[in-house]
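#onboarding

Welcome to the new folks! Below is a worked example of what a typical request in this channel looks like: someone posts a single protein sequence, and someone else replies with the predicted structure as tokens. Don't worry about understanding the tokens yet, we'll cover that in week two.

Example request:
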Amino acid sequence: MVNDQVRDHYDVVVFGGGAAGLNGALMLARARRSVAVIDSGAPRNAPAEGVHGLLGREGMPPAELLERGRAEVRGYGGHVVSGEATGVVRTGEGFTVALADGGSVRARRLLVASGIVDELPDVPGLRARWGRDVLHCPYCHGWEVRDHAIGVLASGPMSVHQALLIRQWSADVTFFTHTMPPPSDEEAEQFAARGIRVVDGAVASLEIAADRLVGVRLDDGTAVARQALAVAPRMVARAGFLDGLGLRPVEHPSGMGEHIPADAAGRTEAPGVWAAGNVTDLTAQVGAAAAAGAAAGAQINADLVAEDTRRAVAAARAPYSAASEARNSEQLAGDSRHGL
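Example response:
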């Protein structure tokens, strides 16, 4: 990735060069704001072959989409910098961002779009297949595995819901309880009604042949033929660098992981800091993340306009205040001379 020369001060620093961060930066750059995107170069969707559910860009490789986004941000004067933030502190009316290379940059406002990390169950072979035939989102990958023999590995509170969703794409779905409790009576009834098979026992490994998933092997040695496996990972916000602002990830209400809470406009509880994309919305796909980034960018610009206006009014009043003070001083001096 081409690296831009970093300045020492920007209107806005954006953490994360994914869809949310780049679209937020694009809105800000088009609003003639100085903006820098700090991108670690590790997008969550890198293993995927294509982006789905994004009108006009259906199936585009993630790397190509991001490269186009970076070029668009740069086209309006924004900077995209390869690097990583290690800390942020509030300084005066803005922020100072510490970078991993030892440098630092100041900003008036911050947009956190650093995304999340998917924590997967500790099953040998699982991580290597992630984004290929091991998947998590049927809306992202369901079409590609339609009518396949699909397994669902129970890993959290959303696994039953995930299995029922996957059933929309295939009639051959098997639910592996793994290390989780078995389905409740109500869930078991739902599975039976939808023809979803339940297999008890921990999953020991994946069976791979010719670089394809062909089955799931249990601890007792039983092998169950499968062509794809769905897993609900625990999703954790990449936000450790925000500790200096007292802004820390909290458990998401869904139980799916941790996120940085933000309101509908993207404002976090830390003044001057906005969040967009998966770092705050764990289920946002690329289109939703990009839209949230654009909305946050517009909100940040409006906030800066309000601050710029306050400063301009104060500056405009200053000469009148100085002249008034001078007149008052002259009046007082005159009164003193006349003994008043």
